Amino acid sequence: MESPKHSQTKTLKKAMRRLPFPVAIATTAIGKKKRGVTIGSFTSVSMQPPLISFNIDKGSQIHDLIYRATHYAIHLPQPDQSSLCDHFAQPGQSSEEQFGNIDHYRSAYGNPILKGIPTVIQCRAYERFAAGDHTLLLGEVLEIEQDSESPSVLYHNRSYHTIGPETTKLKRIDKSA
Ligand SMILES: Cc1cc2nc3c(=O)[nH]c(=O)nc-3n(C[C@H](O)[C@H](O)[C@H](O)COP(=O)(O)O)c2cc1C
Q: pTM of whole model > 0.90?
């Protein structure tokens, strides 16, 4: 028989599949060791100071590196770059397999920056919190490259999507009203 905890995990996963969420790629490096990971947990948290957050699986290869790193970069790919999201979500790759064929350079903060991605947010590690089988990372935004107004990649029900003319606006939320 299924334990109540296991069945809750399954129900939570099912409920979360109904939500679209933005897809980002986090990269970091310490010395020559560099790593990237596709994340669906990226969000902004605070404006003063500007803080963002995301969660990293404690069992993932990037975990120990990003936990210790002083800086990291968050990339927001555009819809025609979803293959990069696939690439950095492939488990079990070496650093060479991750970056060998991907055009990138190291920023002044030491972060691997993936060339051609229109929005890149470079952060200083601000705080870390244990969160079950993940670590929740808070980053302070130091620099933003914002080269596009196009929507980002979304993940919904196990597929990549983007926002287009076919989305249905339910109601305009006018904060000035
Ligand atoms: C759309 C999508 C969103 C993901 N979001 C996260 C996330 O927020 N945090 C995380 O730790 N892993 C996330 N993953 C899984 C990692 O990308 C993947 O498990 C990781 O690359 C594991 O490989 P490694 O341990 O060999 O590095 C996501 C995967 C996909 C496809």
A: yes
Q: Of all helices (H) and strands (E), which one includes residue 84? A: helix 82-87
Residue 82, φ and ψ in degrees, nearest 5: -65, -20
> Considering only CA atoms, which of 119, 141, 134 is closest in space to residue 46?
141
Q: What is the pLDDT of residues 126-152, one digit of tens each?
A: 999 999 999 999 999 999 999 888 888
Secondary-structure class of domain 21-161 per CATH: mainly beta
CA of 41 to the centre of ligand 1 (A): 10
| Domains of the chain by residue range | 21-161
Q: Which of 21, 38, 52 to mutate to test the pocket of ligand 1 (most atoms within 8 A of CB)?
A: 38
